[in-house]
Specification:
Length: 223
C-alpha cells in the first residue's frame, strides 16, 4: 500500500504564514509598501509570515481586506487552513460590475468571468463546492487553472460517485481531485487520468472518505 500524502491549498504552503508570503509574492509588494499604504506595521506582518506570532482572527480579517484592496481575491479560510478557492486575481472585477456591457464587445479578462461563473454555480446549488485544478494529474480533460465544481455527498451516497471524477475530502482533512474507483477488496481508491512521470502517486489506495463532490460543472479559460 502506498503512503498517502496530504494536500491543503497550494503545494508546499502548509502554514498561514507561508500562505501570507505567497499572497504578497503574487502581488509583488513589500511589507514596507503595505505599511505605508495601509498602516499595517511591517514588523507585525513579518512576525505573522514567519510564524513567530500567531495570526489572530482580527489580523486575518485585516489581511483579507488589504489584499482584496490590492486586487487579489482571498478568503480567511484559505489563509488560515489552505482550503477553499486559491487566491485569484481580481484586478478587473470591479470595473466589470461597475461599467455597462457594450454590445458585441467581449469582456477582456476571462479570469474574472470564471470567478463570476463560479459564484453563480455556488449560489445555485446547496452544498456546492469549487476547486481550482493545480496539477496535470487529470489531463487531458482538466488542466491547471480550470475550475471544477460539484455538490457534496456523504455517507451512503458516496457510492453513487464511484467511477466519477470528484472533489474528494478525506477524513484526515486532505483534499484531492481524482477519479473515485472501487478496488477488488471493496475499498475505495483515488486514481489519476494522466499517471505520467511527474505524478508521485498515480493511485492512492484504500482511502477513508469524509465526503465527495462529483464534478457537474467545469469552466476553463478561453485561451
Amino acid at each position: 500500500m502506498k503512503k498517502m500524502s496530504k494536500t491543503s491549498g497550494l503545494a508546499g504552503l502548509s502554514t498561514p504564514g507561508e500562505r501570507l508570503k505567497h499572497i504578497r509574492a503574487l502581488l509583488r509588494v513589500s511589507r514596507a509598501f503595505l505599511e505605508d499604504k495601509y498602516g499595517i506595521p511591517e514588523v507585525t506582518l513579518k512576525s505573522w509570515e514567519n510564524g513567530t506570532v500567531q495570526l489572530t482572527s482580527a489580523g486575518v480579517k485585516r489581511c483579507v481586506d488589504i489584499y482584496r484592496a490590492e486586487g487579489l481575491i482571498v478568503t480567511e479560510e484559505w489563509i488560515l487552513h489552505g482550503t477553499g478557492l486559491d487566491p485569484t486575481s481580481s484586478a478587473t472585477i470591479g470595473r466589470y460590475f461597475s461599467e455597462p456591457t457594450q454590445t458585441n464587445t467581449p469582456f477582456e479578462d476571462d479570469e474574472a468571468c470564471m470567478i463570476r461563473d463560479a459564484n453563480i454555480f455556488k449560489e445555485s446549488y446547496p452544498n456546492a463546492v469549487i476547486m481550482i485544478v493545480s496539477g496535470d494529474e487529470m489531463r487531458p480533460f482538466y488542466k491547471p487553472g480550470d475550475y471544477v465544481g460539484g455538490k457534496i455527498r456523504q455517507g451512503k451516497h458516496i457510492k453513487k460517485a464511484i467511477n466519477k471524477d470528484c472533489i474528494i475530502y478525506l477524513k484526515d482533512k486532505s483534499r484531492f481531485f481524482r477519479r473515485l474507483i472501487k478496488n477488488n477488496d471493496g475499498g475505495l481508491n483515488l486514481t489519476c487520468l494522466n499517471p505520467n512521470e511527474n505524478t508521485s502517486e498515480p493511485v492512492i489506495y484504500n482511502v477513508e472518505i469524509e465526503s465527495v463532490a462529483p464534478v457537474i460543472w467545469h469552466r476553463w479559460r478561453d485561451d
